[in-house]
Amino acid sequence: MKGRQPNPLGESLSTRQKRVFLVVAVIFVMVMAGVSAWAVADNGSYGKSGHGCVNVTVASTTGGAIMHSCGDAAQSLCRRAFSHHDRTSLLARPQCRLAGLAPGGH
Questions:
Q1: Does 59 map to a domain?
Q2: Residue partners of 67: CB distance under 8 A and separation at least 6
Q3: Both 75 and 33 in a single domain?
Q4: Is residue 53 within a helix (H) or strand (E), and if so which, with residue range?
Q5: Do residues 55 and 95 lie in contact, with contact meaning Cβ atoms separated by under 8 Å?
Q6: Which residues contact 93 (CB under 8 A, 6 or more apart)?
Q7: Which residues make beta-bridge pairs with 66?
Q8: I want to staple 97 with a disulfide (CB 3.0 to 4.6 A). Which of 18, 76, 102, 105 is the partner?
Q9: 11-26 pLDDT, tens per residue?
């Protein structure tokens, strides 16, 4: 059976193998950089809190979750946020202010 056998352990890669490895590594790094830039720049589908809608990012079992509420649900969430002192309430307060749903309109 003629043809090249795979390199046994300990033998260096051929020039072609090194080139292929370099191209794959560069493509991988470019994809990861693109995904990272997108993740940093993207506001998500809800955008920012405002105009009666509240978006609060909270810790969850999968790393993070967005609580999104508008209208009556947002008003209820903000009433609770300003009357309780748990972590979620403290995170919601600034977002309620942005949405114009703070007590006394502050």
A1: yes
A2: 54, 55, 56, 57, 58, 77, 88, 92
A3: no
A4: strand 53-58
A5: yes
A6: 78, 81, 82, 102
A7: 57
A8: 102
A9: 788 999 999 999 999 9
